[in-house]
């Protein structure tokens, strides 16, 4: 088993800064890069992004759907890209948003195993079949040192339809956050009383050796933070920077300076391609803004 994902993330952020860059090779972007919308174009795109960024960015976040749409050849491209990104020192967060029960969830979580063909460092998952549905993924992550980011409070326009619904006096989004806080509490399992926020050593100094391996997804474009992240004990993945309207100022407004936030940029960096130097320059601009 490798060191826990939270520890590896803290090390990567200390060495490279907190930026996460999404790898989203959708058909219009391939066209803008002058590439065909086929496995060959997908491979050229992925090779360029990995070569340009994997040696300097803390986290790369390939979107699984854009590889699956090309079938087995697309997945082979992703397998190669993940291996090369990790070899260059980047952590790989597979953006799959999986969510199911029992053996199916267990199978989805296999990508966190070091002997898997994808062998990602972390995986995004959806909790809307109930907190217990994700337990197989939690178990796999713990066994192999992987990480999970759970959809909690996303900023798409109709997210509140479900995430603001109230269960036993708490919003669904808050239940998700509290459950993840429990996962970062040694000995806690679903069904136990939720731990007090003080039971988890919060990452008050942002990333550090106490950073847990289980985090939540909270959009960077929310008008206000309407979930309590106190004592989460793990990182917050914050998508929505750049083309979606989010900024470094929004991160400070929503999370302050004490939360371990992994800010995610995709379109604003990828639009600088296909020139590798342009990709690196765009990522460096965002890295500088985020640490300024």
Automatic annotation (TrEMBL):
Pfam family, one: OMPdecase
PROSITE patterns xrefs: OMPDECASE (PS00156)
Active-site residues annotated for this sequence: 97 (proton donor)
Domain Orotidine 5'-phosphate decarboxylase: 18-282
Keyword Lyase: yes
Signal peptide: none
Protein known as: Orotidine 5'-phosphate decarboxylase
Species in which this protein is naturally found: Geodermatophilus obscurus (strain ATCC 25078 / DSM 43160 / JCM 3152 / CCUG 61914 / KCC A-0152 / KCTC 9177 / NBRC 13315 / NRRL B-3577 / G-20)
Gene name as annotated: pyrF
């Amino acid at each position: 088993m490798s060191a826990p994902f939270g520890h590896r993330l803290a090390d990567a952020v200390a060495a490279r800064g907190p930026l996460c860059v999404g790898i989203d090779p959708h058909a219009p972007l391939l066209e803008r890069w002058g590439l065909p919308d086929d496995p060959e174009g997908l491979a050229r795109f992925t090779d360029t992004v990995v070569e340009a960024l994997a040696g300097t960015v803390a986290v790369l976040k390939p979107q699984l759907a854009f590889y699956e749409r090309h079938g087995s050849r697309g997945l082979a491209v992703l397998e190669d890209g993940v291996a090369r990104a990790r070899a260059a020192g980047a952590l790989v967060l597979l953006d799959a948003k999986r969510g199911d029960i029992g053996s199916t969830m267990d199978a989805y979580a296999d990508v966190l195993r070091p002997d898997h063909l994808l062998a990602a460092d972390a995986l995004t998952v959806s909790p809307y079949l109930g907190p217990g549905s994700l337990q197989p993924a939690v178990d796999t992550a713990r066994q192999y040192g992987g990480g999970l980011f759970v959809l909690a409070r996303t900023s798409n326009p109709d997210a509140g339809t479900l995430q603001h619904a109230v269960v036993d006096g708490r919003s669904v989004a808050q239940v998700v956050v509290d459950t993840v806080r429990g996962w970062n509490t040694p000995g806690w399992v679903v069904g136990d009383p939720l731990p007090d926020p003080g039971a988890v050593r919060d990452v008050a100094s942002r990333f550090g050796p106490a950073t847990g391996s289980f985090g939540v997804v909270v959009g960077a474009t929310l008008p206000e933070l309407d979930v309590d992240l106190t004592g989460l004990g793990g990182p917050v993945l914050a998508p929505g920077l750049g083309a979606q309207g989010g900024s470094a100022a929004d991160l400070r407004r929503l999370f302050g300076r004490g939360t371990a936030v992994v800010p995610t940029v995709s379109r604003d960096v990828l639009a600088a391609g296909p020139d590798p130097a342009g990709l690196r320059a765009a990522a460096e601009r965002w890295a500088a803004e985020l640490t300024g």
